Amino acid sequence: MEKQIKVAMGLEKADLVLKGGNVINVYTGEIEVADIAICDGYIAGVGSYCGKKEVNMQGKYLSPGFIDGHLHIESTMLSPSNFAKAVLPWGTTTGICDPHEIANVCGEDGVDYMIEECKNVPFDGMFMAPSCVPATPYENNGANIDAKGVDKLLQKCHGIGEFMNAPGVIYCDKDVMDKLKCAKAKGVVVDGHYPLAGNKELNAYIGAGITTDHECVDVEDACNKLRRGMYVLVREGSATRNLRDLFPIINSKTLRRLVFCTDDRQVHDLLSIGHINNNIKIAIEMGLSPIDAITMATLNCAECYKLNDRGALSAGKIADIVVIDDIYKFNVLEVYKKGKLVAKDGKALFEAKVLDNKKVRNTVHCNDITEDDLKLKINSDKVRVIGIEPHNVTTTSLIRKASITKGVYDFKDGLSKICVIERHKNTGNIGIGLIEGYGIKNGAIAVSVAHDSHNIIVCGDNDKDMAIAASEIKRVGGGMTAVHNGKVYDTLELPIAGLMSDKNIDYIATMTAKLNKFAYEVLNVEKEVEPFMTLSFMSLVVIPQLKISDKGLFDYQTFSFVDIEVKE
Amino acid sequence: MEKQIKVAMGLEKADLVLKGGNVINVYTGEIEVADIAICDGYIAGVGSYCGKKEVNMQGKYLSPGFIDGHLHIESTMLSPSNFAKAVLPWGTTTGICDPHEIANVCGEDGVDYMIEECKNVPFDGMFMAPSCVPATPYENNGANIDAKGVDKLLQKCHGIGEFMNAPGVIYCDKDVMDKLKCAKAKGVVVDGHYPLAGNKELNAYIGAGITTDHECVDVEDACNKLRRGMYVLVREGSATRNLRDLFPIINSKTLRRLVFCTDDRQVHDLLSIGHINNNIKIAIEMGLSPIDAITMATLNCAECYKLNDRGALSAGKIADIVVIDDIYKFNVLEVYKKGKLVAKDGKALFEAKVLDNKKVRNTVHCNDITEDDLKLKINSDKVRVIGIEPHNVTTTSLIRKASITKGVYDFKDGLSKICVIERHKNTGNIGIGLIEGYGIKNGAIAVSVAHDSHNIIVCGDNDKDMAIAASEIKRVGGGMTAVHNGKVYDTLELPIAGLMSDKNIDYIATMTAKLNKFAYEVLNVEKEVEPFMTLSFMSLVVIPQLKISDKGLFDYQTFSFVDIEVKE
Questions:
Q1: N or C: which terminus of chain B carries fewer CB neighbours within 10 A?
Q2: ipTM, two decimals
Q3: Do A203 and B47 touch (CB under 8 A)?
Q4: A303-312 pLDDT, tens per residue?
Q5: What is the reported pTM?
Q6: Do A204 and B5 touch (CB under 8 A)?
Q7: ω before A64 within 30° of 0 (cis)?
Q8: What is d(CA B168, CA B175) in angstroms, rounded to the nearest whole number?
Q9: Closest CA to A232 of A336, A304, A163, A292
């Protein structure tokens, strides 16, 4: 403290001074030409300063480091340190990370791995204790984190991650109440996840101490949540892009309660449009003042998550600073993390260090999968079918006439089959359903990234290819694969919990592009559908409408399993 | 938690529902016609609800309880429970209270007394651990609270009170650093007090973890503090009224960083214009939107002080609710504290309970005071004189020609004499000075409320009356008295630490009015000067320019003692 005070007072030289930049002031909405003095990784002062090292910032704009209000690193398929390499060049210096995915595979060990690997890189992953492991009782996963487990995790976590089990909250499930009481006692933030909640439900949910929501898809939903006291996290993910729809909620009154997040963003987006910088850029393009947009990505998020040590360029804050060419063009030139230059011209200046943690590897545990295992035996031809909604993680519940031969579904109706194969504890469970709008021909696609329990999902138009694809996933210990006419085309291995690669972003981007291209061009997957990502969300039963887990078809409206056959 | 959730969900009846009022929403800036359901003292929901008891609020406006961002209860001369009775009817349900005054007399015992008495009444006094006991090394006080003491107090206090010792911060005084490190480690708020700080000094001060300031007197000072990252507390006290001057700083960007406070407010103001409601009212009269003004008094203050359980009308917040007739007229009709009606039509519906705590009584310890003790012996007639600045606590440092007889000041020049008599530990110290602009004739006024060490201050135009007045203060164990031609006119006894009465607001108002009237009409004190309060601030050496302590005349600019005689 003394050293920083002396630097602030001008009695000692700063370690580094960024000289004469246009300093963005999120407290007042002003832009001020000033120096930023940095000492021991913290901002010592903003004004006129000398440093042991000085960098001319004239004409450039300096912003606080961007904070992503809610994300799952696992969704990028990058390990934490490779993720950091990917987002730092875009200006994201802090992320509120919910390791919900890996926790559903590996439990506390998974959370530990994420925290530990993050320590190797100049990125502050503020990890939330996953609240829903398992996500629901409606699927088998790899671990269980009860209230005691959450309590333990809160020794190393920043708060509690998204509470997808909204029914558990509003109907006072015992374990849910214990988790929330634990958060309340510790005074930590609890993230929400409650799309389209009714007013009474919202009151119950918020009153239970859940203060954020990133699931707003329309203005009415977002306004209701703001009114009842929530921070609304405006999401631009890869699958779910809500910023344009939610833009009308942003005004001078609501601004402080609005935060940006990405939730789930894929590598191709990280390579092309970036990360939170892209949320900011879109908001500016839509007409928001650049400083307001930056405030949403910095101060607002820091306040929302009680991060008093960041979110603004002022004395005492961590020196996380993004250098931008122009507040409208919004190209990130350089990024300082804790006062060190860590990215320049789109390149990270540090190396990823993927931990070889045995506890998060070799996580696929299931029997060999045969064609027979995947057969769908039905009597009635009037069936419930999952209807894909392009560009969305929600589905519709359709009624269709299925083609049957000798009591077995035979694919002749042009629908695809989707199976969820339990892969954590070898239960032998396989959920089998039908899906419309995927359009696969002469092949199968399989993936071990399958929200939220990350069993193996396989989708295809014949049982043989489906069995080959699922077996390939088992063979490599998790990944993404495409099979055509009885042959594996290629596989992206995801050895970390079956969710993440230990390779870098370029490799993952190349492999996913290759697999996607094959899926579209050879397997004829619908152009409006993301071949792998869409499948990954088909088991997410906490999102409407009809989904499938290893235990069977699940209807969101009744929040219960339903038979594939529609009884008259 | 379960019960509140059930009420929120409409599955159980609320304890109380305020029906159909115009609910002020500080999150969105809207006014919504809605019911507020209350359960166990907390808001369970806002919407449409049924209750065991229902109160029709149609046409009325419902605001979150007002929070005073910074105040010294002692300045009202009311004990905490009588203070609560005085402010609750005006809508103040929470106060960030700095027991700096009583701590300078009684130390930790004084803080304990304030906290304990507050527990008897429906008012949340969030007490800050006084940072400056003694306020400076330049005066004798009754106690010492070092860094260890602050650490201990933080077990029962909310944060650290105003850090008046700004030089101690920016020049890294060891004990000051220890206090600030303790606050940082505990993550608590530290209040500032740094009028007209320079930019480098502000960086140093803020970087040390001090996040608020209530001493801004002009727009430039306030803007500088906002820019550098402080919350600015816009003060309307009795002696210091800054809101009109600071009004231009309020805009849609800065609003969230602005908070209302009263600091020091006298009983006559509490009876006539009220408390934080008056800050709000003035801001509205000046053109601020009523909801913005209310937001400053509620949500902003709650955020500034990390009070997550209040500041808005939403589920999970304490049911502190102010019922107002009209958002422009702004008359407070009723006040609910923790869901209970505690004030109606300007009257508190509860009783004060003044604690008979021996540790805060009988606190005047000094020798008998004689005329001789107060004589000012000087050789040169060119003297430094304290210049009163009407309506302000600052003074000027004047040079005047003093009238001397046989080496002793003889009053013939029309100046008044001011003495500060140490009264805590019987040191025998008496600081003697001259003052211009007070105008007293044929008498003396004495008071044991004397910031910040609360020695006895006496001012008069003859030594005899001054000695009588000081002796009267000693006799009653602290208070305010007026003496005319050798006789005590009347005395307001302040038995609690020599600072507070155990009587109610009406008694104090009557007595102070009576004493003030006498001071003006009989003793000829200048009309532009508050006879007692002005004296109380003459020993406040942390405020410019020339002040006096029991150790002598003190100059703010050099921050050192100066001789009364001006050497050529």
A1: C
A2: 0.93
A3: yes
A4: 999 999 999 9
A5: 0.94
A6: yes
A7: no
A8: 9
A9: A304
